[in-house]
Amino acid sequence: MRRMIFPLCLLLASFTAVFAAEPPKANPRTMTFPVLRYEIPKAERVVLECGMPVYLLRDPELPIVNISALVHTGSVYEPAVKAGLAALTGSVMRSGGAGGLSPEQMDDELEFMASSVESGIGSDSGTVSLTSLTKNFNRTLAIFADVLLRPDFNGKRVDIARKRLVEGLRRQNDDPKEIADREIVKAVYAGHPLGIVPTFETAGAITRQDMIDFHRRFYRTDNMILAVAGDFDRTAMLRELNAVFPKPAAASPLVLPRIPQPSQLFSPEILYARKEVNQTVIRMGHLGITKDNPDIYAVRVLDYILGGSFTSRLMMEIRTNRGLAYNVDSRFDVGRRFTGSFIAETETKAGTTVKAITLMAEIISGMTKAPVTDLELKSAKEYIVNSFMFGFTSPAAIVTQRARLEFYGYPAGYLENYRDNIARVTTADVLAAARKYLRPDAFKLVVVGDGARFDMPLPTLGAVRELDLRQTIPRK
Q: How far is CA 194 from CA 173, 362, 475, in A?
């Protein structure tokens, strides 16, 4: 028995010594870390013989080359009576064949080379992109240039694209979220090209010749910028680019149509779309700011605190404390060419619709009445500054970011000074920005749901205009 007790005592003594030697566990709430240092990668800017700017970033880690072309175009330039023209043009540029290569031949050849060429047009820009193995780059580049400058707009593919647009319109009222997203944009940008959406009538009015003319008007080498990244030799790359984008013959100077900024008119409006669903979809908002606004950094911080994070005021109160919604958020979508928007959104059960709307408006309004806390400010600035590096996760992302800065006319040093500008934001700056750019008294409110099941009649919030979701569907 004594022989057993002695080893046991030694074992206990050793455990005691080990635990006694352990340092106290750190408290995560009091832990500190050194300031994160991150140097923004650079890209070389070169101008081709045709005058087109090109940003280059060589990265031989993988035998892949990526190219993106940014083109000054967009749906804001399409006629209102042919809304949808820009999107269809951007789609059929790739799907409709190019340079005499049929759609089927192009698909087969790109697939055989494991290459990709894609195209599209948004509201204020057009893009054509290329991804290729280095060994297949020359041929893929030739196809890319044809899609960019010499699309064929195959008639059958034009018809297919138009039918897909019409089918999308047939189904546009199936999803309550899509209804709300569409209607809030129309309400915020009423009277402006950004607020125009395709209809059956506009889709039916679009012809193949319209697409050809729209493309010819904007897709020229003096109206685009290239971003090139990957495994390439600089000299060989410039030689290839100058070969596929030769200096054009004398042409009249490009003059882009002048599109005015949205009118700064703020007036409240409640729009209701009747939909027999268990969950109400809520969107509220108004016009926001552009990238040139000097208060953009305070707005970024405001964004995070109000509705841009999992610990935001909207999320903590409406989801965590009240259990009214699974997701709730808000954001300033800062406009690059045109005034952006501020949108707050959530979905809640029908029986808490008015309660959720009222609470959201109160929380947003609260941002204009008192400064945010020091902890909120600190957390927001740390997150924005520390997450900055994730915008540069690949050579293609880096070089495209650089090209976009020039494409949209950002000031010199914007990226380099971004973190310092965020770090300088104060609680007073956030309060001033909230008072200047948040207008809860002038929200466009869109509600999609079953009004008979709401906790209170929607008109208790103000005059309501009901949206007619019925569609006159054309014959096939």
A: 20, 29, 29
pLDDT tens per residue, range 49-104: 999 999 999 999 999 999 999 999 999 999 999 999 999 999 999 999 999 999 99
Residue 290, exposed/middle/buried by CB under 10 A (0-12, 13-18, 19+)?
Answer: middle
Domain that holds residue 412: 269-467
Q: Please give the model's pTM, rounded to 2 decimal places.
A: 0.88
Residue 107 DSSP label: H
For residue 31, CA distances in Å to 26, 27, 63, 373 come to 7, 6, 43, 20
Query: CA nearest 368: which of 294, 440, 450, 282?
Result: 440
| Statement to judge: residues 168 and 217 lie in one domain | yes
Q: Is the domain of 126 the same as that of 180?
A: yes
- Tell whether 18 is covered by a domain: no
**Three-class SS state of 103:** helix
Q: The domain that contains 357 carries what CATH number?
A: 3.30.830.10
Q: pLDDT tens digit string along 275-305?
A: 999 999 999 999 999 999 999 999 999 999 9
The answer on 449 and 363 residing in a single domain is yes
